[in-house]
């Protein structure tokens, strides 16, 4: 019972200091963004006309965001600093929304 109370207090306190989790989340986001950048480069090299290649970019960001939420959930279950991973997921979801313009560019 005391462990759950401590975990609840830690969640509300908002004073997390976990450089290792921040570094892992940043590396995860960097890897997903790198894969999305390669997909953008392939899309532009193909003449910016293939809708399937254009849809890969938001798809990669969507799957990366879901993966970050999954890692955050696992971190929460183990008593770790899950909000760091939630922030990583929100960054990838925001990039997904921005990159949704690429398939419409290919349709024109």
From TrEMBL:
Keywords: Membrane, Transmembrane, Transmembrane helix
Source superkingdom: Bacteria
Transmembrane parts of this sequence: 21-45, 51-72, 84-106
The protein's name: Transmembrane protein
Source species: Rhodococcoides corynebacterioides
């Amino acid at each position: 019972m005391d462990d759950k109370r401590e975990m609840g207090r830690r969640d509300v306190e908002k004073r997390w200091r976990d450089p290792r989790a921040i570094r892992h989340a940043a590396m995860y986001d960097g890897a997903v963004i790198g894969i999305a950048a390669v997909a953008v480069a392939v899309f532009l090299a193909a003449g910016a006309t293939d809708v399937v290649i254009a849809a890969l970019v938001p798809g990669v960001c969507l799957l990366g965001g879901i993966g970050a939420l999954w890692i955050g959930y696992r971190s929460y279950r183990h008593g770790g600093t899950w909000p760091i991973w939630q922030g990583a997921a929100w960054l990838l979801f925001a990039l997904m929304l921005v990159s949704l313009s690429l398939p419409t560019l290919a349709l024109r």
